């Protein structure tokens, strides 16, 4: 994400509403603490830093997911970043059950270009984005296809988390590519040849006959 926002890492900002105190620690988590003397006052995690929300080439929010369990799902929080005179947690709500919304004000996002995604990418990923733009312009892909390519670029950059199925697919692809390069095959062949030679030498030392053809067999 935007490098200038990392200066917020390691800091926490609180907001008290009614009997609850909310605490937002950028790039870490969001917590909620009930301000009461009840013996079973609630205190828990509303989300752990997970990924960015991106729209129109802009970082529009931070998703904190996998918080404490809430009925059949985990609590999660979206943090909206807005321009403000100082760093402060300004507003908290719960638009839907166990999904929270936080508004965080900071002067770090006041510049019009402060939350642009493109400048944070590597040159290689910027080229991929440029190519996607050209394909869309030439009408070789649909708007949906363009969004899919952007999502893949953001996942590769680590701005978005790939789905579990995609991670498994990526691992399988990695395994299948292991022997696809000539260099890798040559290396493995050389290693196997050396092991075969050692075996033959060992058999000869013990007076054991062997036949080295495709129907290879060993006999005493």
Automatic annotation (TrEMBL):
Domain of life where this protein originates: Eukaryota
Domain (DMAP1-binding) ranges: 117-220
Pfam families tied to this protein: PRKCSH
Cell compartment(s), UniProt: Golgi apparatus; Secreted
Domain MRH intervals: 10-112
Record GO cellular component, one term: extracellular region
Chief location of this protein within or outside the cell: Golgi
Gene3D superfamilies: Mannose-6-phosphate receptor binding domain (2.70.130.10)
Molecular-function annotations in GO: transferase activity
InterPro entries the record matches: DMAP1-bd, Gtb1-like, Man6P_isomerase_rcpt-bd_dom_sf, MRH_dom, OS9-like_dom
Keywords, ordered alphabetically: Disulfide bond, Glycoprotein, Golgi apparatus, Secreted, Signal, Transferase
Assembly and binders: Homodimer; disulfide-linked. Hexamer of two alpha (GNPTAB), two beta (GNPTAB) and two gamma (GNPTG) subunits; disulfide-linked. The alpha and/or the beta subunits of the enzyme constitute the catalytic subunits.
Functional note: Non-catalytic subunit of the N-acetylglucosamine-1-phosphotransferase complex, an enzyme that catalyzes the formation of mannose 6-phosphate (M6P) markers on high mannose type oligosaccharides in the Golgi apparatus. Binds and presents the high mannose glycans of the acceptor to the catalytic alpha and beta subunits (GNPTAB). Enhances the rate of N-acetylglucosamine-1-phosphate transfer to the oligosaccharides of acid hydrolase acceptors.
Name of the protein described by the UniProt record: N-acetylglucosamine-1-phosphotransferase subunit gamma
């Amino acid at each position: 994400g935007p490098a200038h926002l990392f200066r917020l890492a390691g800091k926490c900002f609180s907001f008290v509403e009614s009997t609850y105190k909310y605490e937002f620690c950028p790039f870490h988590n969001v917590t909620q603490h009930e301000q009461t003397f009840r013996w079973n006052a609630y205190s828990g995690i509303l989300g752990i830093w997970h990924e960015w929300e991106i729209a129109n080439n802009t970082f529009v929010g931070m998703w904190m997911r996998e918080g404490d369990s809430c009925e059949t799902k985990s609590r999660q929080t979206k943090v909206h970043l807005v321009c403000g005179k100082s760093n402060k947690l300004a507003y908290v709500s719960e638009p839907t059950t166990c999904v929270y919304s936080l508004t965080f004000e900071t002067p770090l996002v006041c510049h019009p270009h402060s939350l642009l995604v493109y400048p944070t990418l590597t040159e290689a990923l910027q080229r991929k984005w440029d190519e996607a733009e050209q394909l869309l312009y030439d009408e070789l892909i649909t708007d949906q296809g363009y969004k899919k390519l952007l999502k893949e670029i953001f996942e590769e950059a680590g701005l978005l988390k790939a789905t579990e199925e995609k991670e498994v697919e990526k691992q399988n692809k990695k395994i299948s590519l292991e022997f696809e390069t000539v260099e890798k095959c040559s290396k493995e062949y050389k290693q196997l040849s050396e092991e075969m030679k050692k075996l033959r030498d060992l058999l000869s030392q013990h007076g054991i006959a062997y036949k080295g053809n495709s129907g290879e067999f060993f006999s005493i």
